[in-house]
Amino acid sequence: MNNGDEELKNAYTGDLLSDVMGNAPSDSVLITIQAHKNTVAVASLAGIKAIIICNNRSVPVDMQSAARDEGISIFTTNESQFYASYTVATLLGKVDAHKD
Amino acid sequence: MSEIPINPYTSPTVILELIYRLKIKDVMCSHLVTASSDTSLREIQKMMRDSKITGVPIVRGNRLIGLISVDDIINALDKGYIEDKAEEHMSRNLIVLEDDMPVSFAIRYFDRFSFHRFPVLNKQKELVGMITSRDISSSLLLEMNREMEQLEKHSNISNGLKNNLNDEIYTYTIMKNDFENAGYASTQIKKKLKASGIAPHIIRRAAIASYELEMNMVVHSNGGELIAEYSNDKLVITARDTGPGIPDIQKALTPGWSTANEWIRSLGFGAGMGLPNTKNCSDAFTIESSEKGTLVCSTIYLHPQEEKTNENQ
User: In B, which residues are within 8 Å of A39 by CB distance?
Assistant: First the structure.
């Protein structure tokens, strides 16, 4: 974990790392199920500052240390990428959170 | 607490130079809302509200004879004399500034006295403006912005001239299926560009191009080298491998086309975007291949004037 103080303005959801490389905005959070070290490499090169691993996938130790070295925060959730994306979008103010 | 936290003795040189160079007349508000001595305080209150100001100078012709501040209005409302004339309650012993004085004087005055505004007179003692601390803050911000733009422009130019990037070549060995170390070469390239002060969006393009070429060799080739050639104005990334070669280069350049196996795809690779990504990020791109191996060359220009706009290719 880095100091966790940075404010992120954007997010990207994807599992195809080349697609993430090519399309993810920088200073964003990546929502993915690719829980391995190479995700950190891609994040670092694309300027992604945080990763949310969905579907309760476990984060291997080498991915954690790689993230620590690169100053990238990793979050985990039991939820699906759909739910995680919706939650993040609401937090970023990109969605009206209607209360039904 | 000081209104304006600038110490004329210890602030940075650029700021000090600014506050001595700028004159009060450059910074003050010269659009004046004034009243005469027989204007009622109620009318003055309305003038303050309409013009959104907190102090109205009382004048006779061009000469300043007093000042009514919003505090005076509050007292008048409180004590019930809001209909009185300005001359009955205006402040007469006024601290004023001269329009030719440097802004540093004004800053000192705001520190020393508790007033929020000062009338400004010219050499002929005529009222020519009012200055508040907000006027000083906005002008300083504007000037500092201008100075910073100049500084940034000069440091960008001198970075290029300084030859931070001398002609250097770095070669990285890439091994087949070496996911453990995959991305190492690209990370080194990114670090070197960042240390040389290259613009972030150009670093990103170089990072994507080198990473995709590196991963292609890890995933698809029998192993090879990633070579980064740095010079003053450009970075040339060469990916050279020992086989098995690309049978159909046109197909390989098509987004979405991939020859990756199931295991590779489960790791998130094999989207078929590698070569298209590299090409899109490059200012120049060449590829040739045979069974003996593949050679890909990507050129990234490092300084904004020379960039090609690649986005819509």
Answer: 268
Q: pLDDT for B203-232, tens place per residue?
A: 999 999 999 999 999 999 999 999 999 998
Domains and CATH numbers, chain A: 10-91 (3.40.1390.20)
Contacts of B187 in chain A (CB under 8 A): 41, 44-45
What are phi and psi for residue B133, nearest 5 degrees?
Answer: -65, -30
What whole-number distance in Å separates Cα of residue B32 and Cα of residue B36? 13
Residue A59 near residue A74, CB atoms below 8 Å: yes
Q: So what's the ipTM on this one?
A: 0.70
Cis ω on the peptide bond leading into residue B244 (within 30° of 0)? yes
Cβ distance of B183 and A39 shorter than 8 Å: no
Q: What is the architecture of the domain spanning B163-306?
A: 2-Layer Sandwich (3.30)
Q: Where are the domains of chain B?
A: 13-143, 163-306
Contact present, B271 and A16 (Cβ < 8 Å): yes
* CATH architecture, range B13-143: Roll (3.10)
Task: Give contacts of B208 with chain A, Cβ < 8 Å.
Answer: 21-22, 45-46
Q: What is the pLDDT of residues B125-167, one digit of tens each?
A: 999 999 998 898 888 888 888 888 887 777 665 555 444 677 8
Other beta carbons within 10 angstroms of residue A72's beta carbon come to 21
**Verdict on whether the full-model pTM lies above 0.80:** no
Give the H or E element holding residue B144.
helix B133-161
Q: Between B207, B267, B277, which is nearest A36 by CB? A: B267
Q: Are strands A48-53 and B117-121 parallel, antiparallel or unpaired?
A: unpaired
Give the count of beta carbons closer than 10 Å to the beta carbon of residue B99: 19
**Single-letter amino acid code for the residue at B112:** R
Task: Output the DSSP codes for B21-63.
Answer: HSBHHHHSB-----B-TTSBHHHHHHHHHHHT-SEEEEEETTE
Query: Burial code of B200-238, b = ≥16 C-beta within 10 A, e = fewer?
Result: eebbbbbbbbbbbbbbbbbbbbebbebbbbbeeebbbbb
Cα–Cα–Cα angle for B173, B177, B178, rounded to 5 degrees: 50
